[in-house]
Structures are given as C-alpha cells and as structure tokens.
Amino acid sequence: MKTNSPNVLFNHQANLLLGKTSQVMKQKLLLILMLVSLCTGAIAQGNRTSASGTIVVTDMNSILSSNGTSSARLSNTNTVNVSRVRDLVTQVQSASYFYEGEVKTYGDAPVNLYTDLSSLNQVNNSVTLKQNIEIVTVRIRTASELNSTIDLAAFSNFPSLKYIYFISGSNTTSDTIARRLVNYDERFSIFYKVDKGDSNQ
Question: String of b and e for 148-186 (b: at least 16 CB within 10 Å)?
C-alpha cells in the first residue's frame, strides 16, 4: 500500500493558502500607500508654515518705526527689505484697486494692489496686471470677517508678490490673523495693522 508523505520542500495546500493571503496583503498594502500619498499631498497643499512651524505675522508699525534701513529677518525663511516695504506703504506708487468686482489701475505697471477681504476670492481672475505687484493691501472691514478663512491661494499667480499687508478695522492680533490663513506660501511676508479709520489704504 502506497502512502502519501508530505513533501517538505513544497506543500501545495500551504502554498495555495499563502498565495491568497499574500494577494490580500498586497491589496491592503497598496490601499494604505495610496491613502498615505493622498493625505501627504493634501497636507502639503494646506498650510505651509515657516521652519518654526508657525506663520509669522508682523505688526507693520514695528517695520515702519524701525531704525534699520536695509533688511530685517522675520522668520527662519523670510528676510524683508525694510526700505522697500516703507516705500511701498508710504510713498505714492502705481497701483491697482479691486473693490466690489471692479478694477481701477493707476500707472502702467502697478506694484501695489489694494482690495478687501470680501473681494479676495475674485482677485486672481479679475486683476490682469499682476506681473509687477509686490505688495497686496487687504482691508478687513468688520470683526465678523476676522472669523472667516483667508485663502492666500488667491495670490498664486502673482509672480513678483512678496508682501501681504492686512489692515483691520477691528482690534485683532497677529495670532488671530495667522490662524485664519490657509495656503500660505513662504515667499510671502505677512504684515498687519489695526486702523479704525475709513481710508482705503
């Protein structure tokens, strides 16, 4: 009588079971890798912060009142040309104004853009002369606007933009503004000032 002795080197039943388990494990591993890849991409497109992990928002008054005329380091990644910022904020420059869906431009190659928070999501499509814009001044008119998200992706197609300057008509802090910013780009230096006057600048 012939008996079946198991082949120690090759067991068909164990190999079949291992093959099915291996296939399921490969599928699970692939699913996990895809999920990790998607999450990593989403996080990378979300808030980009400075090397210290926070978005630095600087009080414009400290820049304007500083004695230095060359440059100041605001974070690990951003160095600001103080004299250039002073010129952009205090001197008359060619500028575009975008309020209530209407663009008005003064000068041939505007370096300043003035707008308000309610117009921010339309800026990218409405402002056509964006090649030379170095600073955008965004007016925050009401305290309720400080509770909304400020999406800096609106400025993604402004190649020369370096400075974003928020002027708030309500009391606020640099931390409050920093918490509202999304899609931060490290090429931007962010400033703010509380100004309860009614001027557009």
Answer: eebebebbeebeebbbbbbbbbeebebeebbbbbebbee
More confident residue, 193 or 200: 193
CB neighbourhood size of 40 (10 A): 10
Q: Are 65 and 51 in contact (CB under 8 A)?
A: no
55-105 pLDDT, tens digit per residue, is: 899 999 888 887 655 555 554 456 788 889 999 999 999 999 999 989 999
Q: Among residues 126, 125, 128, 103, which one has the least CA distance to residue 114? A: 103
Q: Which helix (H) or strand (E) holds 184?
A: none
135 contacts 158 by C-beta, under 8 angstroms: no
Pairing of strands 71-73, 57-59: unpaired
Give the global pTM.
0.69
Q: What is the dihedral of CA 4, 6, 9, 13, to 10 degrees?
A: 110
Q: Is 152 helix (H, G, I), strand (E, B) or coil?
A: helix
Give residue-wise pLDDT tens across range 31-52.
676 655 554 443 333 334 444 4
